[in-house]
Amino acid sequence: MKKYGIKKVAPAGKIDYENELNPQQLKAVLASDGPALVIAGAGSGKTRVVTYRVAYLLEKGVSPEEILLLTFTKKAASEMLRRVEDLVMVDAARIWGGTFHHVGNRILRLHAELLGFKNNYTILDRDDSRVLVDTVVREAGVDTKAKRFPKGRVLLEIIGYARNTDTTIEEAVEMKVPHFLELISEIEMVAVRYARKKKELNYMDFDDLLIYFAELLSHHPEVADKYSRQFKYILVDEYQDTNRIQARIVDLLGGGHRNIMVVGDDSQSIYSFRGALFRNIRDFPNIYQGCRVYTVETNYRSTPEILHLANRILAGREDGFQKTLRPIKKSGPRPALIRTENVYEQAEFIAQRILELADEGVNLGEIAILYRSHFHSMEIQMELTRREIPFTVRSGLRFFEQAHIKDVLSYLKVIDNPRDEIAWKRILVEIPRVGVRTADKIWDILKESAEPLSTISGDKIPAAISSGARPGWGKFSLTIRELKNNAGVGPSELIGMVMDSEYDYYLQAKYSNYERRVEDLRQLANYAARYDNLEKFLDELAMMGGVSTNDVFAVPQDEMVVLSTIHQSKGLEWDVVFVIWLAEGRFPPASSYGDNGNMEEERRLFYVAGTRCREELYLTHPMIARQRSGEETILQPSRFIQDLPADCYEEWQLFDI
DNA sequence: ATTCGGAAAATTTTT
DNA sequence: TTTTCCGAAT
Questions:
Q1: What does pTM read for this prediction?
Q2: Which of A80, A142, A351, A429 yields a CA-CA distance of 20 to 30 A from A291?
Q3: Superfamily holding A306-390+555-652
Q4: What's the distance, Cα to Cα, between the start and end of chain A in Å?
Q5: Nearest nt (C1') from A439 Cα
Q6: When comparing pLDDT for A620 and A74, which is higher?
């Protein structure tokens, strides 16, 4: 079938900036060249400022590829670029937009040899990284039994924190898990071997995409020069959540021409656990002398009642830029505080209220339930299911992190990169009668081979493994051979081949919900159809861990209540928002107490939660909760609520009818 | 020496 | 729902 592309050729209508922006926004959008900081409070049209700014630059004659737009998620970038295209007749796809990780990857793909990698490196997602760290621990012969040694997950967190904050492993351990300080030398050794192993195997984890990006720019002036010449204008969104490395990257790229505009809100910095420094935004004007500071405070999103509460959350804070959200919307109901007997009553209240709202004509898609930690959503999920209220969960295990998805992707990975140890071992141990030991043996042979995919067919491997494992191996090698012979057909078809292979029997045997998993895989194949290049497909997926099932399936969102962690709700908004589990020990969580905790960040998190809401805000907390031991404890209301003046909310009392 | 099966434990927040 | 740990089975 013939396919048509669309190119806009009509001349762009001139944008009427004065009419479409408020005075504060206008000043920021029309800012002249040079460093600029835009402090944009929640709901103040931050995205609008960024998109109009980009459109303005384009109208001025800046060409799209000269603009670098760094955002917090890939989705935010594409959304902004889409809106730019509505404003100006320019092919916005030519603008470099995405997360630091995306842009880093794009550039590293071209220059990785300069750093001792090959350009076709494989990106490790978090689970891959964990597996590799565990492998390193095993290979290093650390005695994990004598003293309790941190697990892969924990080690990764330590290593990642140290790298993202540019500090030593020792400091990271002291900060995160001080009780492991006595094992510091072993942990340091693991960190070193992990880094070495990644280089040997041509792997980059998420942190590497940032750190090697920065290293590339600082150690190779000719590369830095090339890109800082190319990107004449740099815009960074959510600058309050950048870490030291990211700030350095901005510096290295834009330090010369200084046409850097950073946008953010220091009150919404909620990622310090992964190294974000809200100092970055606070100190920006000092680092960039002559920087102009623009403040955008008019809030278009929320009612005065909600903003009053939001402003009070952060009242008395010393640090940061002074700003007060100024309402423009008409008055609405006061936020409600509901104390419930226990978690079940909390869930029942919310479900009931949602049904009432639906009766009043509120669209379910305009309702969100926000919480601090994913597991806080469990009772709610059960209650909504029981009452057949449709909902979508945007936290917890992500679509691409599910076992069967990762299995099938591993088949594709070994075709794309036959030296991918993690992917090989993952699928090898799924062969009947093959476990870790046999997988090690097979990998040793593959590793030494000049062409691993051809070695699959020889008799070298059957000779090395036990007779029990040979039949399984035979079928497996056939599948690999078939994939290899069709490597050019595109990821979607390859996924189909894996599904038709012996792997299907494995799935049936292993999982009780086989049907649903097969359906997932069909959707994955469906999704893959939009890619014709295997490497690109795998790259995107590795960095899309945060994508939920619904993003992949393109299910219409407007019919479902959204359940989300507050972190994931950043940048989004709903008419009705429930913030749940507002009890001491839950939100703020126990981990935020004490010297190593970060109570101020928790408070900002509460601020983010409240400011997601347009009309009706509900704060709930159970008064009694069952501990894991089975014991019932009385919960204190969250200090965030106790600290609020009483005029911020009204209290509702529940009674049986 | 390995694999496999069942029971127990564990889940902050994420590019 | 998944990882981890341990003893039985091959």
A1: 0.88
A2: A80
A3: P-loop containing nucleotide triphosphate hydrolases (3.40.50.300)
A4: 63
A5: B2
A6: A620
